[in-house]
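Folding Problem: From Residues to Backbone Shape
Fields: amino acid sequence; protein backbone structure tokens
RECORD BEGINS BELOW THIS LINE
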Amino acid sequence: MGGHHLILGELGDFITGELLADTHDERYRQKIARFLVADKGYAKADIHPRRPMIVAAGNRKGRLMLDFTVTVDDRTAMVVKYGPGSLVTRYRPTLAISRLVEHYQVPVVVVTNGEEADILDGETGKLTASGFDRIPAREKLVQQLAQAKFSPISLKRAEMEARIVYAFEIDGGCPCDDTACRIA
């Protein structure tokens, strides 16, 4: 690992116990995971860190790792995207991810820098709440799912969303970020 990420040693992943590079970004990711379990009532088994995802834009392919997907009743119900800095710049690519990670629209999309968070409706893309503490608790998410459509994503829509993810996360990503890369 190189680039601009300061490696401070190793730390254990709160969810999986796996040893990871101890970076400032990873410390925020661990804070988010602990918050979801301790404050929001999720079980560790509900939270899936570093979920790999392949996206294609034409004949180009890339791989990225999703910070967190959260499942409830065997469905991915929430995507959580961490990134330092401005939240609003991450809305569109995270919404696109929420339309690709499953064959249906993931209902809740969270964009956070580890201090602040914006919660978006996956279906409409509209901001529904702001504030780290406003990330839905498990109980509230279960209630929201009763109203969720889990709309299927058409192949054409998936193709367009994949191009957005590729542009923002692969082409537009930091060259020293080891969580996203070109593979073809």
